[in-house]
Design brief:
By secondary structure, the chain is an alpha+beta fold. It contains eight helices and 14 strands. The structure holds (3R)-3-hydroxy-3-methyl-5-(phosphonooxy)pentanoic acid (PMV).
Length: about 350
């Protein structure tokens, strides 16, 4: 089987203890992943920008113990975070076949985010990928022959089992996850760096995240993905995403920013349309999300700007724009958009190159 290569040889000896740290960024999908099957496999291909400033830093300390139950403690900004336990427990169960030392250690996981806690921005992508990278580093120490390419592939494979979108946070600046006939080496099992031609205009894109609602999501992504089973529009949505990948390839190559605006906004609204038409149906956008969208459209109409928006599974709005428009867009935010942000909060980011190991 294709996944056998991720199962390591039996370890001959395990270190008594150690410590490793990684920082891993969030990412924002241009063509969205929404709907999965099997063990965290995507129903369609997705393509994302990796971010730079929005990231999670995780330090993992490990101490050998009798083999037995999983044993770990998790802290966010120094405080024990019991709410994180179930997700990590599920993650450990899914990955133990690929990291057989998991039951032989007690782990102290210390994590912090560069963005406000529960800001609704994709902390599962950065958080799960940072943890996967720390765990895989332990295996790499046992097997120094592991190549960089294999390390990145397996890190993405493991991250995917924590959160689908996390598979796309290992590398940058553009990353593809999910098999696609037009993208050689694309895989459902792990994400890869997008290696098609990319016009310079897309090389320093900005993403300013307007924090519209920083509370807990009303409906989790897990529930949302599951509602794509038996969804009346699911099959046509998956087919549309595959077509949008081909369209986006051409847009990225030619530098067609108008085409980019149309495709990216349509993808965002389609994601939310899937939620609106699920059974049970639900709405994650808030009135302020719509106010911001209207304001962007008015601004574009009035100025010819190439500013566009995209959305994750939440109310926050990601503003995507070329670097040359940075000053003007920041003006627009201060004049017209900040009133729609919770406590006036927004985060300035730009595309980045992926996760980094932190020297200790
Ligand atoms: O990674 P998950 O399972 O939380 O799914 C998130 C999916 C979206 O963020 C809504 C879209 C995407 O492709 O990132």
């Amino acid at each position: 089987m294709q996944i056998d290569k991720y199962v390591p040889e039996v370890y001959t000896s395990l270190p008594e203890k150690g410590s490793v740290s990684w920082e891993s960024p969030s990412n924002i999908a241009l063509v969205k992943y929404w709907g999965k099957y099997g063990e965290q496999l995507p129903k369609n291909t997705s393509l994302s920008f990796t971010l730079s400033n929005c990231k999670t830093t995780t330090k993992l300390q490990y101490t050998k113990k009798e083999e037995g139950d999983f044993s770990f403690e998790v802290r966010l900004d120094g405080e024990l975070e019991p709410d994180f336990r179930p997700k990590i427990e599920t993650f450990f169960k899914r990955i133990e076949a690929y990291l057989p030392f998991l039951r032989s250690y007690h782990f102290e996981i210390e994590t912090s985010n560069s963005f406000p806690h529960s800001s609704g921005i994709a902390s599962s992508a950065s958080g799960m990928s940072a943890l996967a990278l720390c765990l895989l580093s332990i295996e790499r120490d046992l097997n120094p022959e592991m190549t960089d390419a294999f390390f990145k592939e397996k890190a993405s494979f493991l991250s995917r089992l924590g959160s689908g979108s996390a598979s796309r946070s290992i590398q940058g600046p553009l990353v593809v996850w999910g098999e696609h006939h037009a993208i050689p080496n694309s895989s459902n099992l792990f994400a890869t760096q997008y290696d098609g031609e990319v016009h310079p205009i897309f090389k320093n894109y900005q993403d300013t995240v307007l924090l519209v609602d920083v509370g807990q999501k009303k409906v989790s992504s897990t529930v949302g993905h599951n509602l794509m089973h038996n969804h009346p529009y699911a099959e046509s949505r998956f087919a549309q995403a595959q077509e949008n990948i081909v369209k986006l390839q051409a847009i990225l190559e030619s530098g067609d920013v108008d085409g980019f605006v149309k495709l990216v906004e349509s993808e965002a609204l389609t994601l939310h349309a899937m939620m609106l038409t699920s059974m049970p149906y639900y709405i994650l956008m808030s009135p302020n999300t719509l106010q911001i969208i209207e304001a962007i459209w008015e601004y574009r109409e009035a100025t010819g700007s190439k500013l566009c928006f995209t959305l994750d599974a939440g109310a926050n709005v990601h503003l995507l724009y070329p670097k040359a428009e940075k000053d003007a867009v920041l003006e627009l935010i201060k004049d017209k958009l900040v009133v729609y942000c919770q406590k006036g909060q927004y985060l300035c980011d730009n595309i980045g190159l992926g996760a980094k190991k932190i020297a200790q």
